[in-house]
Request: fold
Amino acid sequence: MTTAFFWDEQCFWHIGEGYALTYRLGGHVQPMSVGGLPESPEAKRRMKSLIDVTGLGRELEYRHARPASRNELELVHPAAFLDTFKQLSDEGGGELGLRTPFGKGGYEIAALSAGLARAALFAVLKGEFDNAYALTRPPGHHCLPDWPNGFCLLANIAIAVEAAFAEGLASRVAVLDWDVHHGNGTEAIFYDRDDVLTISIHQEHNYPTDTGDVQDRGAGAGEGFNLNIPLPGGTGHKGYLEAMERLVLPSLEDFQPDVIIVASGYDASIYDPLGRMMAVPDTFRQMTAMVMEAADNLCHGKLVVVHEGGYSDVHVPFCGHAVVETLAGSNIRAVDPMEEVTNKRQPGPEFDAFLSQWIDGLRKSLD
Ligand code: ZN
Reply:
């Protein structure tokens, strides 16, 4: 089995200033002496480093990619938005939308991030690799065509999908988003389409606070091709696997995609500052194994994983390693020294029963 890993050091050079965590500086919000916006290079760079240190990297094919072209960006984003973004970026940086600051050259770095997702998808669709991981930064799943938000400057996965459609490489794509936040951008871009199934598992009303409801199933031709799985805060390992088993896998099977793309955020981690969930590395390992089996059964194993959020700089690398080692069919494990503790902190039987009922409720509202 060959797994490609697309990355670029330049993506770690994207900077965004003017924040302390998600608080905009000003008034009573003190600037931080170290850090600022939680979307920083640290978690992603440490994940890549961990993959090198454990030796997993030697079992992968490391790849770079060209930036997404202007024509490819325009498959999703209006020309006027791209012009404004490029101009601000050339002039030294700025901010458009909500919580999406960027520095000089931020436009080019965002296009490169989208290019990593595009190249990973193209390589898998062309049969060059069994599956692929794209370590994209900035992330993409919140970005709307003309309104970047939630640290996402361009809609990486949507750009990759539209580029693949334009080249005739695929005609049915399923996007499964397990970032703790709702994949509102991907949902909006494909909301009235029946050729892209969008599924988002997320903490209910975390971010955005007003999207991601189970009733939002798509519109027009896209009716039934959007699936939201909002879960209560506190959901842990068992809850995630139950949601996968009972809601995600049947939906993928019904849709019969040509390829499955996972928008893989790691902010459902038990240590994440922006989520209130309790996932551990083994949660990501097992979700990856489940979606690989689905891809084997439905689309010759064609699977692409694209990095989204994840703000526990120390825990993200262990969660991400679990995903990549599973994709590669590797026996190499990264030892998470806190795993025994986090396993003991999982929700108890009462919560598990509550969560099963919650999922029963979601299934009923889908009928
Ligand atoms: Zn997120």
